[in-house]
Structure formats: structure tokens, C-alpha cells
Design a protein that fits this description.
Elements: E1 4-5, H1 24-34, E2 38-41, H2 48-56, E3 59-62, E4 82-85, H3 102-109, H4 124-141, E5 147-152, E6 154-157, E7 160-163, H5 164-167, E8 170-171, E9 173-181, E10 202-209, E11 218-219, H6 236-246, E12 250-252, H7 253-260, H8 264-267, H9 272-282, E13 287-291, E14 294-297
Parallel strand pairs: 1-9, 2-3, 4-5
Antiparallel strand pairs: 5-10, 6-7, 8-11, 9-10, 12-14, 13-14
Length: 299
């Protein structure tokens, strides 16, 4: 196995009609590389993991929301040495009520899968929160020394990129990030206009290990909005040019003062107004005097 994998032919295992199924060859290669004796999959979808385990002659524990196991609420009873996780990619493919009957699940198991399905329409932040809960719950169930492989992808919506691997929680020791090429996707048949759109033709496999029973590393993304006027890294040239740009490219000194006053950078420099005037004067390639007391961005 290498850091880039490609399976043009899907291979044998699982329901190839179950949308979103990954290649059985990926699961086979991961299990063979790790030399595992058992594999668990708590979002097993079309049953690919179970079929691969049978081919390898190893034990499998495979469950899904559609067949009576709710990862959000049910206890994981096993302590597996290897977990393969392939969660939904936000609401790209909806499962409950679309790929299988929600009414049948209610009738058989007494809960509504539409309430717990990670693929249901919901805000991105809510999806990531639920995804992170599921990741931590599975990682906690691993035996000491066990591995967890998580197959995830990127989503492009209305020109914005939503990246699962960047924003999801990463417990334990990161052993490898594997790039998996995508083949024969439904989106391959879509024509995209404009040069600003780059089609997504890959996924990621994040391979984690739980090296200690009690203590482990953990990486979690922290999202937030940063104001350039409130951090130490930007120079005064950066700040003044950004403020001018935000104000349409031209502003009076008083307007610049007002836009910058009260932010943290003014707290560390008592002569910040003089600093603004100096910045405007010593960078003729960036600023020019448009009128008396009025400055503009240079062309």
C-alpha cells in the first residue's frame, strides 16, 4: 500500500447499487497492511466491509442505522483492533428515506432514522459536530494499539469548499493520510461551466492509532473570524491597505482613524495615528494622496 491508491475496477463485495459505497479493494488493502484479525464497521451501508472480512477469513462486526444500530445512541459492545469508518459526505447522498425505507426501520426497530442520519439536510457545523461525536465514540471503543481508518471527502457547494478532513476531530496518533482516486462517480457525467471550478476526483483515508489505553493526542479544528486590525502579525501597511480596500479604495484620514480606532493594534501603540500617517507617506507604491487629507490605494 502506498500514500496514493487507485482502484479503477471496484472489485467484489457489497452492493454496488448502494450509492457511496467504496471499493472493497481499499478495505482489503488496509486490513492486509495492518495484519488484523477482525474488523468493525458501524456505518456499514451496503455491506462491503462484511464481505471483505469474509473473503479474508477474519471476524467482522458490521452495523448500520438501517439495520437496527444507531451509532449516535447505541453502545459499542466490541473492543475491536481495527475500525473502518466511511461516514456520509454531509447531505451529498441522503440515505434514510432515499437509499432505504425509513418507515421500514421504524416498524422493525422502533426509531426514526431520519432523526439520526448524518446525511440528512442540516447546517455544515451541525454535521461536523455529529461526525466528531461518532468518530470519538468509535475511537474510544478501540483496543490499545488498535487502528481506525476514516474515509472522507471534500464537498463543493455554491463555490465554497467544505473539507471533512480539515474540520473533523483527529484523536490518537496520525499514522498516515492516504489519497484515494475516485472513479466512475455520478458527478463524472456533469458538465461544469467556468474555469473557477475544479472537479473533486479524490478522497482521503485518515489512519489513526490508539497507542495508549488512557491518554492520547487529539487535534480539533478551531474556526472563527479574525480581524486584521486585532492581531500582531500584519504590518501597519497591511492594515491601512486592507481598511482602504474595504472602504472602496479611498478615505480621509479621519475615516481611517475611525475605522482603526478601538482595535487591539491601537492599544499597543499610543502614537498609532502618527503611525498611519507615516505608513501612507513611506509607501508611494501602495498609497497616494488623492486630495487634501484624502488618501487612496495606488493603481
Amino acid at each position: 500500500m502506498k500514500s496514493i491508491v487507485s482502484y479503477p475496477e471496484r472489485g467484489v463485495g457489497g452492493k454496488n447499487t448502494y450509492r457511496g459505497n467504496c471499493s472493497p479493494k481499499l478495505i482489503h488493502d488496509l486490513a492486509d497492511f495492518l495484519k488484523v484479525h477482525e474488523i468493525a464497521d458501524y456505518m456499514c451501508g451496503g455491506g462491503t466491509t462484511r464481505d471483505v472480512a469474509a473473503q479474508l477469513g477474519i471476524e467482522s462486526y458490521c452495523y448500520d442505522l438501517h439495520s437496527g444500530f444507531n451509532l449516535m445512541t447505541d453502545e459499542i459492545r466490541e473492543r475491536p483492533e481495527f475500525i473502518f469508518a466511511h461516514p456520509p459526505y454531509w447531505s451529498i447522498i441522503e440515505y434514510a428515506g432515499k437509499q432505504y425505507s425509513a418507515e421500514e426501520v421504524i416498524r422493525q426497530f422502533g426509531y426514526d432514522p431520519l432523526r439520526f442520519d448524518l446525511s440528512r439536510p442540516q447546517p455544515w457545523d451541525s454535521f461536523i459536530s455529529e461526525l466528531n461525536y461518532c468518530i470519538m465514540k468509535q475511537f474510544m471503543a478501540l483496543e490499545k494499539g488498535g487502528h481506525m481508518a476514516i474515509l472522507v471527502g471534500d464537498i463543493k457547494r455554491k463555490g465554497k469548499l467544505y473539507s471533512m478532513i480539515l474540520e473533523m476531530i483527529k484523536p490518537g496518533d496520525i499514522k498516515q493520510i492516504i489519497i484515494k482516486a475516485q472513479h466512475n462517480c455520478w458527478s463524472d457525467n456533469i458538465g461544469y461551466s467556468g474555469q473557477s471550478f475544479i472537479p473533486i476526483v479524490h478522497e482521503y483515508v485518515l489512519l489513526l492509532q490508539k497507542e495508549n489505553a488512557l491518554f492520547f493526542n487529539m487535534q480539533a479544528a478551531r474556526n472563527g473570524q479574525v480581524d486584521i486590525r486585532d492581531i500582531e502579525i500584519p504590518t501597519w501597511r497591511n492594515i491601512v491597505s486592507s481598511v482602504l480596500e474595504e472602504m472602496g479604495g479611498k478615505a480621509s484620514l479621519d475615516e481611517l482613524y475611525e475605522a482603526i480606532d478601538g482595535h487591539k493594534r491601537t492599544e499597543t501603540n499610543r502614537e498609532w495615528r502618527a503611525k498611519i500617517r507615516q505608513t501612507l507617506q513611506i509607501h508611494p507604491n501602495d498609497f497616494h494622496k488623492a486630495d487634501r487629507g484624502v488618501w487612496a490605494l495606488a493603481a
